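sry for the spam today, last one i promise. struct tokens for design, 140 residues
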């Protein structure tokens, strides 16, 4: 499977289908994930925890790959996540009650591959849009 297909499989399998074993197949055990506003995380537990958090609050979570570009050992993907905020969400030390409303947010992710697995990722989710829809911050 080529790198673009592996990068595409990650979100569908882990976030949409809840197949956490796929994270261990696609990501190297010592992969490093960088988010713009958080310390780097090593291993596959971070993506599994994030998927569990989102899938618990948004049980009908669906992902859609909007764009993808590959060059050398890197793949850039732009994703959209959609679903219904149907169950409580524990986030930022708070319990956020569900509002039953649809939510949608985007993410841009860069994955670097070695030997057919992701070894580094840089991602920027549109948390602002998601947090507004969850009621964490006021809509402007």
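last one done:
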């Amino acid at each position: 499977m080529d790198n673009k297909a592996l990068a595409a499989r990650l979100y569908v399998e882990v976030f949409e289908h809840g197949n956490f074993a796929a994270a261990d197949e696609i990501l190297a055990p010592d992969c490093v994930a960088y988010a713009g506003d958080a310390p780097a995380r090593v291993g596959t537990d971070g993506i599994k925890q994030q998927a569990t958090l989102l899938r618990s609050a948004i049980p009908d979570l669906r992902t859609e790959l909007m764009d993808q570009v590959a060059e050398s050992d890197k793949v850039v993907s732009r994703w959209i996540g959609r679903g219904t905020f149907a169950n409580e969400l524990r986030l930022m030390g708070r319990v956020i009650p569900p509002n039953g409303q649809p939510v949608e947010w985007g993410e841009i992710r860069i994955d670097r591959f070695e030997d057919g697995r992701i070894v580094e990722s840089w991602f920027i989710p549109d948390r602002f849009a998601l947090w507004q829809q969850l009621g964490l911050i006021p809509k402007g």
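Helices lie at 3-16, 20-26, 45-57, 127-134. ok im logging off now
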